[in-house]
Amino acid sequence: MVIIVTGGIGSGKSEVCRILSGSYGFPVYEADRKAKELYVRYPELLNAIESALECSFRNSSGVFQPSLMAGRIFGNDEAIRTVENLLFPYLIEDFKVFAETSGNIIIFESATVLEKPQFEGFGDKVILVDAPFELRLERACRRDGADCDAVLARMKGQKLMNALSEGMSDARIDEIILNNGSVEDLEVAVKGVMDRLGLTDIKNN
To answer: pLDDT tens-digit profile of 90-111?
Structure first.
């Protein structure tokens, strides 16, 4: 079983994944972090992206710099699609390898998976982690040590997550965790979700 954990910037989806990993033993595939690893692991992937976008994302020593890629594609839908069309086949294959050795319940963490056609029908259950917009903004600024205007621009780009946070329904979502309290509150909420999904006592073999 693949459980997708998704949510907007600052919602706390990584904290939910930490609880699922620590308390339930479910391995977590962090899609955003894995993507950065793939650019380094597969030079042909980074070469193809740089060729398609006609620019380099490496420093003077030839080391990949995620910030350079982010600066180039942010707000540019065509550039984002170009990167994703090249990246996602690698990401999906990497996840398959991860899944083969990770037991019978796996967490797939991604902020954007529900927006991407390449992942249509992916996953068995979807958990949305949400919090009020201002709280998410505060958390993200504090976590990243970033300028609030820059974080706000990134948040506004997550159109689906914002719409869901504002009450839009999506039949693909099985459970919603409102993360607007303490860590203890979040742990209780996660346990409630696991109970409703019938996964509280399942061992990950």
So the answer is: 999 999 999 998 888 999 999 9
